[in-house]
Amino acid sequence: MSADATNGPPPGARPDWTIDQAWDRYTDAEHQVWITLYERQTALLPGRAADPFLKGLDALDLHRAGIPDFARINEELKRLTGWTVVAVPGLVPDDVFFDHLANRRFPAGQFIRKPEELDYLQEPDVFHDVFGHVPMLTDPVFADYMQAYGEGGRRALGMGHLANLARLYWYTVEFGLLESAEGLRIYGAGIVSSRAESIFALDDPSPNRLGFDLERVMRTPYRIDDFQQVYFVIPSLRSLLDVTVSTDFAPLYQRLETARDIPIASTEPTDRVFTHGTQAYALAGGRTQAA
Ligand code: PHE
Ligand code: FE
Question: Is the pTM of this model over 0.85?
């Protein structure tokens, strides 16, 4: 989420770190990467992705023609929830990121991954950001959550507690699961944009799947380099919005200063356990082992 802010925006970027998407300049090969990824994911996602995600994907018509033109997406997105997508060169500083979110702008990487890195990359590209994040922004409740998160982010920065708040983002916006009448569904952008994790997150016996609890989540570290060892399940988007907006995080941050972190793979007596994971994948060495 974060880039070094000390030198300001890179050459060619505006003071708010945005750039032109320059959609006309994508090559056919770049569009083809989008198409390949799009087809892989949409084949997997019915029955796995949460309804609001699938509805959003449909509404925005992000389909097979290649990398979408942000100007075109924005017409529909703006109409639906007042959000827009803006292009950035890559990761942006935290304060810049929060400022965009608080103003209902989602900063999306302009570049697309190379054909030889379809499955894993370090920095979010246009596929992760647009395919992964933007469909959920068509949902009015999630749209409000993301704006509130931006406002909460500015507050957390001021109080020096960004690390705790970042865990909330990680375990909801990036890697969240949603309960539905038909079973667990994925809505986190890091999952829905990854072929392997959209299967692992729901089907693999390795990770824990636990009921979402705000303070519990903020005490749980996360993996940035591999599949998660724990996923948190929300009963509804509304409940996520309600609990985060109605809770004043200041006393929470205060408590967290002395509370211990919860080990990443543990289940606590107070957890609602959907899956008690074997942790077999992580114990075998995870990605390094599988490579
Ligand atoms: N209520 C939070 C606070 O007091 C702000 C927030 C809302 C944070 C929604 C995240 C998501 O800081
Ligand atoms: Fe992301």
Answer: yes
